[in-house]
Amino acid sequence: MLKSSFSPRLLAAAAVALTLGAAAAWLTDSVRLTRSARGTEGLLWPPPKTLEGFALLDQSGAPFTPERLEGKWSVLFFGFTNCPDICPNTLRLLERASPAFPADTQVVFVSVDPERDSPESVAQYVRFFDPGFIGVTGTPDSMAEFTRSVGVLSMRTEADEHGNYSVDHSAALFLVDPRRRLVGIISQPFTEESVSRLYLEIRNFVERQG
Predict the structure, then answer these.
(1) What's the pLDDT tens digit per position in 90-147?
(2) Alpha-carbon distances, residue 97 vs 62, 92, 192, 208 (angstroms)
(3) Which architecture does CATH list for 9-208?
């Protein structure tokens, strides 16, 4: 009898890649459709959703609820503190880009690995890049529900023999307006200049709508 040459680990990795690839294609299509319709890359208009009904924790252990998104603009980035490259590179980019953001902008790092990312570890992590950044974590269930509500896909890879694992996740930036509406997605690859430019273009468009 012929035996399959694919191990469970390889099959799991393939499933992760296919699922994340589908999510990336969805994000790309959304951005492309928006760009052709409105002329602003990354703009989601009309807004597809309002963020509500979540109860998370910030890096100091204080509640991070929908009210924390009201009355200001938010740039959300989803990652994890054990991320080897994409997360620190993106946070460094945001550190350099954020001085060009209007004063009522908050940069929020949202963990997709709440089992390892406690408020304390998230606090230490975001503080390394910018003391003004907000770090958010919570229970596995609450974080999974929040990431799904935003439209972020994340998937934990199989742990190795030492119990180490990674988390594959969407690497885009998500823009939320002061009414808690998801109004933009800035997709990779990007630079600090393009992030600042696209954020301001999306923001100006939304504010003109009243």
Answers:
(1) 999 999 999 999 999 999 999 999 999 999 999 999 999 999 999 999 999 999 999 9
(2) 27, 9, 5, 23
(3) 3-Layer(aba) Sandwich (3.40)
